[in-house]
Fold:
Amino acid sequence: MIETALTDLWYGFGVALQPHNIMWCFIGVLVGNMVGVLPGMGPLATISILLPLTFGIKPVGAILMLAGVMYGAQYGGAICSILLNLPCHPPHAVTCLDGFPMTKQGRGGVALGLTVMASFVGASWGITEMIFLSPILVRVALQFGPAEICSLMLLGLLAGSTLARGSPLKGVAMTVLGLMLGIVGTDLETGAERFTFGMTHLDDGIELVALALGLFGIAEFMNSINQVVSINAKYTNVRLRDMRPTKSDVKQAIAPMFRGTFVGSLCALIPGTGPTIASFVAYATEKKISKHPEKFGTGLIEGVIAPEASTHSSVQGDFIPTMSLGIPGDAVMALLLGALMIQGIVPGPQLIKEHPDIFWGLVASFWIGNILLVLLNVPLIGIWVKLLTIPYKYLYPSALFFVCIGVYAANNDMFQVGETVVIGILGYVLLRLGFHPAPILLGFVLGPRFEENFRRAMLISRGDILVFVERPISAVFIGLCVLLIALQIYVRIRGAKAPIEIPTVLEGAE
Amino acid sequence: MPPAHSSVVQLVRNLVRKRDFYAGALVILFGLVMALKGPSYKLGTLMHMGPGFLPTALGIILIGLGIAIAATGLSVPEGEDEDILPANPEWFGWACILAGPLCFVLFGTYFGLIPAIFMCVFVSAFGDRSATLRGSSILAAVVTVFGVGLFSYLLQVPMPLLAWRGL
Structure:
C-alpha cells in the first residue's frame, strides 16, 4: 500500500513540477500570503474573486492556485496576530495571546521564525495523512449507494453547521437556507423552474461566485467600514536576522510543535472542526499539560507554536474529506469543490481514479507550495509588514471593484453583479442577527447533489424512507448525526463555557 | 410587584426586543416562502419525487428552526442581545458600499469598463469618514489604470473600454 502511494505521489510531483503548474501554485501562495496579511480580506473573498479568472486555465492549474491561496493565507494570518495583536483571521486568534506579548518583549521575530517552522511541520504531517488516508477512504466510499451518500452528506452538513462558531440552531438554519438557494433555477430532472420568480437570468441558478462574494465580500465590507482600528505599527520593524531562533528556543518549541500537529490532524478527521477549533484545542491542551499554566499569555513559545502547527496540520487535513469523498468541511473547501464543479469535474470518491492528475498533483503541490511559502516568508516579511499599514479606506474600494469584475467575468453577465449586491445586503442582515454565513455556502454547494441522491435513493427503495437506517453503513452515519445533535443538546443543558477567552475576532471572516 | 397576568405580557414584551426573535422571524419567513411556493412545483410521491418535494420539506424544517431560534430569545435576560443595529450605524458608509457595485452595473452597461471602474471605486471610497474628493479621485484613477491593464489587456475580459449606448 505504501508503495502504490509513493508511486502515485511521484506521479503527482511530475504533474505539479510542470512549469505552468509551478507558476500557478506560486501565484496562489503569493496572493494567499498577501491577503492573509491584509486586515479585512479573507481567503474566502480572495478565492471567490480569483475563481472566475481560473475558467480559462486547465483544471489542475486552477485548483493548485486556489488551494495555494487558502494555505498561503494561513502563513500570512500569523504575521498579523503576532506583530499587531490583530486576529484578522479566526484560526490565528489564539496566536495573539502569546504572540503579541513576545513581540512586546522584542522577540516577535523569533516567534515568526518559529511559526514558519511549526507551520511547515504541521502542514507536512497533514499532507502525509492525506496521502495515506484518502485512498483508504475512497476504497470504502466507492461501495456507497445513493442512500449512503445521502446520509454522509447529511452528517457533513450537520457537522459543518453545528460545530462551527455561534449557535448550532442558527448554523443549521443557515445550512438549510444554503440548500434552498442551491435549489433556485432549473430542476435537472424535470426541467421545472423553481424560485426564479420569472427572472430568466436565474434559470441557471444562483452563481456560486456571486453568492460567495456577496456574503464574504460586500457583507464583510459593510461590517468593517469605519470599524477597522488604525494599526499600531510600533513593533513591525522586523529584520531577517531577528527571526533566527536560538538553540534553546528551538528545543523548547519541538515538543509543542508535534503536540500541536497531532491535535490538528485529529481535528481534521472530525468533519466540521476546522482550523479555528484545532488551534483553540491545541492552545488549551498546552495550557493543561504545562507545568506553569499561569505563565500563558505572557509570551510563551508553546502558546504560539502549538496552535500554529495545529492550524496548518488541520488545514491540509481538511482536504481529505473534500477530495476523497466530495464532502467539504467548511466554506473554503465548499468553494474549492465549487471550482472543480465549474471546471466540469464531478467531486466524489471516483475523483482520484478519474482525475489522478488533479488529486496527486494537488498533494504534491502542497509540499511545493509550503516550501515556497517558507522561502517567501523569511525574506519578504518586511514587505508583508508594510502591507499591514495600508489603510482600510484604500483597501475596500479597490476590493469592491475586484468583486464586481470577478462576478462579471464569471459569465459576462451584469445581472449577477446586481445579484451580488442583493446577497450582500441579505448577508449583512444575517450577520447583524447573529448568523454566521459560512454554512450557507456548504449547503449551496452540496444542495443539488443531495437532492439528486435523495431522489435516487427513494426511487431505488420504492419510496421507503426507512432505507436510510436499514442499510448498515448509512445507519452508522445517521447514528452519528443523532449523536451529534444529542451532544449539542447535552452541552447546552450543562451550559458549558468556552475553555479560554477568545480575543475579539473580526466577525464573519472564516 | 406587577400582577400575575401581566407576567405573560412582560415576557412577550421582553421577547420582541430580542435579536433572536427577529432572527427566528426571518428564518420563518424564508421557510414560509418555500413551504407555500414549493407545492406549486408538483410534489410527487415519495418514490417519484417531484420538483416541489424537497423545497416544501426544507421550508417546513426552516419554519421549525425559526420557531426554535425565536424561542431561545426567551431565555436571554432582559437588556441583553437587544441591539440589531451596531452602536453607531454607518448608513452613509453602507449606502456607498452598495452604490459602488450598482455604479459598476450602470456605467458598465452604458459607458464601458473605464467609467465603470472609476465610478465604482470613486463612489464607494466615500464610505470612509475621512475620505476626501482628491483622495478618492486619485485612488479611483490608480485602480482604473491597474484594472484596465490587468483585466482588459492581460485577462481579456470581454467588455468595451469605452462605449456609448445612450440612456
Q: What stands out?
A: DSSP finds six helices and no strands in chain B. The radius of gyration of chain B is 25 Å. The helical segments of chain B are 6-15, 19-37, 53-72, 91-110, 113-125, 133-154. Residues 6-75 of chain B form one domain.
